Amino acid sequence: MSRLHRFSRTELLIGPEGLERLKQATVAIFGLGGVGSYAAEALCRAGIGRLVIVDFDDICLTNVNRQLHAMDGTVGRAKVQVMAERLRLISPEAEIVPYREFYSAEKSDMLLAGHFDYVVDAIDHFTAKVHLITTCLERGLPIIASMGAAAKLDPTKIHVADISETHKCRMARSVRKLLRQRGIERGVKVVYSTEEYREPRVKDAGCKSDCICPNRNEQLFSCEHRRVILGSISYIPSIFGLTMAGVVVNDLLSN
Predict the structure, then answer these.
(1) Mean pLDDT score of the chain
(2) Torsion sign, CA atoms 174, 177, 182, 184
(3) Domain range for residue 69?
(4) CATH number at residue 241
(5) Which residues are CB-contacts of 27 (< 8 A; sequence separation ≥ 6)?
(6) What is the pLDDT of residues 44-80, one digit of tens each?
(7) What is the DSSP string of the chain?
(8) What is the DSSP pairing of strand 118-121 with strand 143-146?
């Protein structure tokens, strides 16, 4: 190590060769909410050289309790734009490629064009999530997917496993069913929690009837269009995201 730089401490841990491997890697993060925002920043701070970030949504005041980019001054702005600005300040030499898009079958070829060393799925929408997972498996792209991080409080119940081994997670159960319909039983690495589901203690906290987002009329899935809004806490989604970033970094260094 010839001189100090922003990744000096990382270099001490993984060596110049490891640092160069991360610098040459391209990772895509789909979804920049409570899970995805932390995954994206952790990957950037680890020294990933090219990050493709995808999210269609704007920052809402109710995101402040769990999303990295949500604070005074950013409410109403596009998550992907705020996150891109933040990542470029962390690692000016990294290539940050933002797409303000909702992942779908129609957008898949465009958003997955080019080379990817890893894909991080932090999407909430089931149809989009299952299509992304299926497409990555078909293309041989390494992917790690987040299961349900809402309605949880206990960080010690978070695990990494193949989706076939998941249990006690409602999202994982639904995703398993949808994947089975496509002939996929296993082979998808996921982060999930075995904590029992916690019912909301306040009925939607007025979210559906009194939406405060400044751009609510432009949203694809605004609060009033959601069947249910679940409770969340600051640290569970972030641990999911940081764990996913850790899996990606370790896999990239071991290949």
Answers:
(1) 93
(2) positive
(3) 23-254
(4) 3.40.50.720
(5) 43, 48, 50, 51, 52, 116, 117, 118, 119, 120, 248
(6) 999 999 999 999 999 999 999 999 999 999 999 999 9
(7) --S--TTHHHHHHHHHHHHHHHHT-EEEEE--STTHHHHHHHHHHHT-SEEEEE--PBP-GGGTTT-TT-STTTTTSBHHHHHHHHHHHH-TTSEEEEE-----TTTHHHHT-S--SEEEE----HHHHHHHHHHHHHHT--EEEE---SS---GGGEEEEEGGG--S-HHHHHHHHHHHTTT--S--EEEEE-SPP---SSSGGGTTTS---TTGGG-TT-GGG-S------SHHHHHHHHHHHHHHHHHHHH-
(8) parallel
- Domain membership flag for residue 16: no
Both structure tokens of 48 = 């990933």
- Contacts by 123-126, CB closer than 8 A, 24 or more apart: 123/30, 123/31, 124/31, 124/33, 125/221, 126/171, 126/174, 126/175, 126/178
In 3D space, the residue among 131, 143, 138, 123 whose CA is nearest the CA of residue 104 turns out to be 131
What pTM was computed for the model?
Answer: 0.92
Asked, for residue 196, whether it belongs to a domain, the answer is yes
Structure tokens at 146: 């987040």
Query: Position 145: which residue type?
Result: A
Q: How many domains does the chain have?
A: 1
CB atoms within 10 A of CB 239: 19
- Residue 207 falls inside a structural domain: yes
The reply to whether 173 falls in a domain is yes
Residue the block writes with tokens 């950013």? 74
